[in-house]
């Protein structure tokens, strides 16, 4: 694949991640390097990370390798409600 093709693939996957109703993932970075697709960012649970990878796989050729570097972060407990007056 040429560099232009890789840029197109990354943009296509980014669009799919933001518009697919299963994930609506806005904060995920998508890059292509040496014919591999890299996903990076942070999500609140492993299930969401896996769903993002699944959507990405549907957007690329089967032979393209996907490297899922999405980090699952711990979400802090309930935050106290702020009252604005």
Short description:
The chain has helices at residues 3-19, 46-59; strands at 29-33, 36-43, 65-72. With 85 residues, the chain is an alpha+beta fold.
Please name the CATH topology: Histidine-containing Protein, Chain: A
Order of helices and strands: HEEHE
Unreliable stretches covering 5 or more consecutive residues = none
Number of domains: 1
Total of helices? 2
Q: Which architecture would the CATH scheme give at its second level?
A: 2-Layer Sandwich
- CATH level 1 name: Alpha Beta
Major β-sheet, in short?
Answer: 3 strands, mixed
| Helix and strand composition category | alpha+beta
In angstroms, what separates the terminal alpha carbons?
57 Å
Mean pLDDT: 89
Identify the overall geometry: elongated
Describe what you observe in this structure:
It is a single chain. With 85 residues, the protein is of the alpha+beta class. It has one domain (3-72): Histidine-containing Protein, Chain: A (2-Layer Sandwich). The protein is built from two helices and three strands; from the N terminus they run H-E-E-H-E. Strands 1-2-3 form a three-stranded mixed sheet. A hairpin with a 2-residue loop joins strand 1 (29-33) and strand 2. Helix 1 (3-19) crosses helix 2. The termini are far apart. The model has no long low-confidence stretch (mean pLDDT 89).
């Amino acid at each position: 694949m040429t560099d232009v093709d890789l840029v197109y693939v990354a943009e296509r996957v980014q669009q799919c991640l933001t518009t697919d109703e299963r994930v609506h993932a806005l904060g995920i970075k998508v890059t292509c390097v040496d014919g591999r697709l890299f996903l990076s960012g942070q999500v609140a649970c492993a299930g969401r990370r896996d769903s993002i990878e699944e959507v990405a796989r549907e957007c690329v050729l089967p032979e393209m390798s996907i490297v899922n570097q999405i980090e699952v972060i711990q979400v802090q407990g309930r935050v106290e409600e702020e009252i604005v007056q």
